[in-house]
Specification:
The chain has helices at 25-28, 32-40, 57-64, 69-72, 77-83, 120-126, 182-200, 203-210, 233-237, 248-257, 275-285, 298-305, 308-320, 323-326, 388-395, and strands at 3-9, 42-47, 93-102, 108-110, 129-131, 134-140, 145-151, 218-226, 241-244, 260-262, 291-296, 332-337, 354-359, 381-384. The chain is α/β, with parallel strands linked by helices. It has two domains: 3-73 and 229-395, Alkaline Phosphatase, subunit A (3-Layer(aba) Sandwich); 88-226, no CATH class. Strand 9, helix 10 and strand 10 form a beta-alpha-beta unit. Helix 5 (77-83) packs across helix 10 and helix 12 (298-305) runs antiparallel to helix 13. The protein is globular, with a radius of gyration of 22 Å. The chain starts with a strand and ends in a 9-residue tail after the last helix.
């Protein structure tokens, strides 16, 4: 049996870009290693979750790992929280959060508090507290981002957001979306009132105001959910797995699935991430793991930023560090794809299909001469993300016989 490496270039898929002479960033990129694998392996197109669905990174990664998001997905909050190292117990709820800025009338003037990057640890500690027997725990993420976990009896995730998602609008009161959510909504609104008071009086914000910077005087909540119960990966597939990612969301998904999550401060999840460190950590993980998932996030960041040349550069950097895997093709099955498309002209996710390649020694060739959105359309593979893991098990010699 061979081990499996699943390499996910986040937001990989794209559309023709004027700045690239009508090519996609993947087509325009110099990608000799990916092209080599595509031409000597199998390639094709893959729809994340199902055709035409515009997925998030959370739902698509769940599907790529073989978990049906239609059944297990409860909201992004739990994944973000656990990726930041916050432990969740059954019944706890979690939110994604931003440190934001509101005026005296409660109008949101900056959803990111000037992209605050310092002092968020102190701010988070000041609003971690207990109210009426419920525990509120806040942990900072990258820049203005944070996560909130609420622990206590009879909590409901049938509540709305406090984030209006636009500047110029009043911060929203948490609304109950069902009778079950009424008590939780009241509790959260009480907490957010205390949060505003404490943040407004913090030394961090006094220092920011003295420098003319926006105060981080509110916590904007969205994406509530309860931690789903996933069948442990090692039980589901009879193999030990590892997850290597620079962003909390993907590590959170790995943690929920029981993958050994690998983090390193040099893996930032942005343009300055050290791609070679990710590969080195993957090679180390493969000594004890049968399956390793690697996420390269910066392709998605460039898509959201609408920068096709930068997305091309990210793809080229990723391609350059893949060579060690090629040298292990007798022992590895290598799969490369995305989790969704993030076209630079849209600056947002789309429902476009994704290029997919699978490479290992002895594989029946059915690929294209290059790895890109158009060429892979001529390949032999036509898979959905929900059956990718099963196919990788078959190629690696791990699939169980179905029937007599």
């Amino acid at each position: 049996m061979k081990k499996i490496v699943l390499i996910i270039l986040d937001g990989l898929g794209d559309r023709p870009c004027k700045d690239l002479y009508g090519l996609t960033p993947l087509q325009f990129a110099y990608r000799p290693n990916m092209n080599f694998m595509a031409s000597r392996g199998q390639s094709g197109l893959m729809y994340p979750v199902s055709p035409g669905v515009c997925t998030g990174s959370d739902t698509s990664h769940l599907s790529l790992l073989g978990y049906d998001p239609k059944i297990v997905y409860t909201g992004r909050g739990p994944f973000e929280a656990m990726g930041l190292g916050l432990l969740m117990n059954p019944g706890d709820i979690a939110f994604r959060a931003n440190f934001g800025t509101i005026d005296e009338a409660g109008i949101v003037t900056d959803r990111r508090a000037g992209r605050i990057s310092q002092g968020t640890g102190e701010l988070s500690d000041s609003i971690t507290m207990e109210i009426d027997g419920y525990r509120f725990t806040v942990k900072p993420g990258v820049e203005h981002r944070a996560a909130l976990v609420v622990s206590g009896p009879a909590l409901s995730d049938n509540v709305g957001d406090s984030d209006p998602h636009e500047v110029g609008l009043k911060v929203k009161k948490i609304e109950a979306l069902s009778k079950e959510g009424q008590k939780t909504a009241e509790l959260l609104n009480k907490y957010l009132g205390i949060v505003h008071e404490k943040l407004s009086q913090s030394k961090v914000n006094e220092d920011r105001a003295s420098k003319g910077l926006p105060r981080a005087n509110t916590l904007l909540l969205r994406g509530v959910g309860k931690a789903p119960e996933l069948e442990p990966f090692n039980k589901k597939y009879d193999m030990k797995g590892s997850c290597i990612a620079g962003i909390p969301l993907i590590r959170g998904i790995g943690h929920l699935a029981g993958l050994e999550t690998v983090n390193d401060p040099r893996m930032t999840g942005s343009y300055d991430s050290d791609y070679r460190v990710k590969v080195d950590r993957a090679l180390t993980a493969l000594k004890t793991s049968d399956f390793v998932m690697i996420n390269f996030k910066a392709t998605d960041v460039a898509g959201h930023d609408g920068k096709p040349l930068l997305k091309t550069s990210v793809i080229e950097k990723a391609d350059k560090v893949l060579e060690p895997f090629l040298l292990l093709s007798d022992k590895l099955v290598i799969a490369i794809t995305g989790d969704h498309s993030t076209p630079c002209d849209l600056k947002e996710h789309s429902g476009d299909p994704l290029p997919l390649l699978i490479y290992t020694s002895g594989i029946r060739e059915g690929g294209s001469f290059s790895f890109d959105e158009v060429s892979c359309g001529n390949g032999s593979l036509k898979l959905g993300s929900d059956n990718l893991m099963q196919y990788l098990l078959a190629i690696s010699g791990r699939a169980e016989k179905y029937g007599a």
